[in-house]
Give the backbone structure.
Amino acid sequence: MKGIPTVLITVSPEVSAQMRPPRALYPKGFKIGNSLGRPGMRGLQKQVLRDALDLFTQNTRPGETVTLEYPDYGEQYEPPRVRKL
Amino acid sequence: MTISRKCVPFTPFDRELSKSTIAIVTAGGVHLKDQEPFNIADELGDLGFREIPPDVDSSQLMVTHHHYDHTDADQDINVVFPIDALRDLQNEGVIGGIARKHIGYMGYTMQLKAMYEGTAREIANEIDKGSRADAVVLTGG
């Protein structure tokens, strides 16, 4: 099994962490449905995409989610939490 | 091959990004307007996926998914499926190319085992064999 390198862009970091993604970016405060930002904000979308792609060449720790802030996004949202049983 | 539930299936990336071909796989329910929509009437979820070609006009994409608010994606699909943003990065030389095949599926299911052992493997196979992707960007809603 060779495998394909992947990077996840997540807006539900606690939820996605349960699947232990090898590389993940959480754009802080982005709401569900806005993984790359808001409609029409191509510059922001490109920046988020580029930051996610850059995780391929950075020495990230497998399973760790990297959180980055994007002030241009505007209003911030709380991500969904995993319910503790 | 069974993967341990505790293991992180990490595949190293040993290329240069500027020479690499990238595919997008989204759980955001994205598909072409002329493809069959995902079946949101099935409460167990739709285990299928749709192939999206590299030269797609992003205005021809839509979302069928009833477990997140896709109003913004309806206006601009790039908020969940950044194909135009990826093209910009190709034009700027950040990445080498756009993969021949991209995938949309509906990331909601009550059939986790079938999704994990069936759909996920089929998607990986499509990307591995058919897309010539060196790496994959995954997005949710």
